[in-house]
Amino acid sequence: MNSARHRRTSTARRLFAATAAVGGVTLAYAAGIERKRWTLRAAELPVLARDARPLRVLHISDLHMLPGHTSKQRWVASLAELEPDLVVNTGDNLSHAAAVPAVLRALGPLLNFPGLFIFGSNDYFGPKPKNPARYLFEREENRKLIHGPPLPWQDLRAAFMEHGWHDLTHARETLTVAGQRIVAAGVDDPHLHYDRYSEIAGKPDADAALRLGITHSPEPRVLDPFASDGYDLVLAGHTHGGQLRVPGFGALVTNCELDRSRARGASRWGADMWLHVSAGLGTSPFAPVRFACPPEASLLTLVPRGSTSSDEAGESRFNAGIGVR
Ligand SMILES: [Fe+2]
Predict the structure, then answer these.
(1) CA 66–ligand 1 middle distance (angstroms)
(2) Cβ contact 105:251 at 8 Å
(3) For ligand 1, a single-atom ion, which residues have Cβ within 5 Å?
(4) Is the pLDDT of residue 319 over 90?
(5) Each residue's pLDDT tens digit, 228-272
(6) How far is the CA of 283 from the centre of ligand 1 (A)?
(7) Least confident of 109-123, 137-151, 212-226
(8) Could you tell me the distance, in angstroms and rounded to a whole number, from the CA of residue 272 to the centre of ligand 1?
(9) Residue 236 pairs with which residues in a beta bridge?
(10) What confidence category does residue 130 fall into, taking pLDDT thresholds of 50, 70 and 90?
(11) Cβ-Cβ contacts under 8 Å for 248 (sequence gap 6 or more)
(12) Ligand 1 center to residue 240 CA distance, Å?
């Protein structure tokens, strides 16, 4: 081998080794550190009736619990110290048939507060390995749904309801939260095409302090009728905030028809409705990595319309990454 060719080969080897090392370190960080960087996000949303008093809502989503996820269980349980007025769980609690007790260890202290829930695909069916290239590059509508074995969502539902939480799967409820009347409604998981909005369609009580919609996956076909019926706010999960985000670019995918810019956090949907998407607290056990997207719960302070500058600006005030532990 002549010396010029030898130098080119050595340089290429060094570059390859450096790239592999950076990739390895990034993967180790995404799997070992960021995946457990439990984070509380805070946002203030001007969605209440003008004479209402502020409400503090804790939004939990996408636990994807395995029995051995003990630090997640401890952290989620500690959120009861926030003493929210209402807890909303937007689904994907389970990643294993034996994980119901673990989910209840995490949510146990929160079950003492008023709560609402709907389920997602990872409550009904266990996870299955997926081709990451198809996940990243294939359009949602072309992707085939792959189900694992059925999960014991009925046990979870029974435990939630025993503590007074409301199952909003194709149901509309009027309830009193912190002395104020709210109307809440939800649909079954749009990701599985289980949603039948027609079952809850109609204008909710115009005199309520809040009209709240919940759905696991924030599919536009569900958000649009919530907005046209006059809901103030819809809470959703499912996107995992993209799970792997590129700094300066954001989420690569939302795993649904929602645009990438709304993969995590609060945004307007139409003229009068707000959408809040939780980046969630878990991952599929077959892709246990997060990057620039720590697992999160969200504490939403709902305030009357017109009471913050963000109402006029059409932007939320969203403080990223407030770790409580
Ligand atoms: Fe999920």
Answers:
(1) 13
(2) no
(3) 62, 92
(4) no
(5) 999 999 999 999 999 899 999 999 999 999 999 999 999 999 999
(6) 7
(7) 137-151
(8) 27
(9) 277
(10) confident
(11) none
(12) 6
